[in-house]
Design goal:
single chain; 200 residues; mainly alpha; Arc Repressor Mutant, subunit A; 2 domains; 0% strand; elongated; transcription regulation; transcription; sigma factor; RNA_pol_sigma-70_dom; RNA_pol_sigma_r3/r4-like
């Protein structure tokens, strides 16, 4: 058997291979799946919740649910579709469960403090500081606009516009038809254009 040379790229295991390893007791395989999907799932969950602290909680809950149900995962199915569905459903359930405890209009406590523009300290960085402020304002406006959509519409927008998934992939994740996805996207995009008409 030919030994790999130092220049030979190391092949990353597929999702299926990692799931098989995990089902056979290799916990390290689950760590690899978490590293592979945590950033992508965070974006999807935040797109539904618009709240960073809750997003972290739901992300952890998503991986716990995935781990507990891994034995029932059907080999041959799409792992990312399966775990995206868990993430979206968990996020929607979380939002509905705790909605009455949240004040309307906020995108997350402490978010603005994390984005304090340090460029104000240096006068030569005035243009960069202004750009940061404009981006922060746009981010807040986008969060508020998304907050006026339903959980289902936010999920579709996040999966399509941010994650770049196809209509068919989103339909599998959300368990509905492609026609429903197209309809939700059309409505969501039209509504966002109305809400963000000063920016687009």
């Amino acid at each position: 058997m030919e030994k790999p040379t130092p220049d030979t790229p190391i092949r990353e295991p597929t999702d299926r291979e990692l799931v098989l390893c995990l089902q056979n007791g290799d916990l390290g395989a689950f760590d690899q799946l978490v590293k592979r999907y945590q950033a992508r799932l965070y974006r999807v969950i935040y797109g539904v919740l618009l709240h960073h602290e809750d997003t972290n909680d739901v992300l952890m809950e998503t991986f716990v649910k995935a781990y507990r149900n891994m034995g029932r995962f059907r080999i041959g199915a799409s792992f990312y579709t399966w775990i995206y569905r868990i993430a979206v459903n968990t996020a929607i359930s979380h939002r509905r469960k705790f909605a009455r405890f949240r004040l309307a209009g906020g995108s997350g406590e402490g978010d603005d403090e994390e984005r304090t523009p340090e460029a104000f300290v240096d006068e030569s960085a005035g243009k960069e500081a202004l750009r940061r402020i404009e981006l922060q304002e746009l981010h807040r406006e986008l969060d508020q606009a998304l907050g006026q959509l339903s959980e289902a519409h936010r999920a579709v927008v996040t999966l399509f516009d941010i994650e770049g998934l196809s209509h068919g992939e989103i339909a599998k994740i959300l368990g509905c038809s492609e026609g429903t996805i197209r309809s939700r996207l059309f409505y969501a995009h039209k509504r966002l254009q109305q809400l963000l008409r000063n920016y687009v």
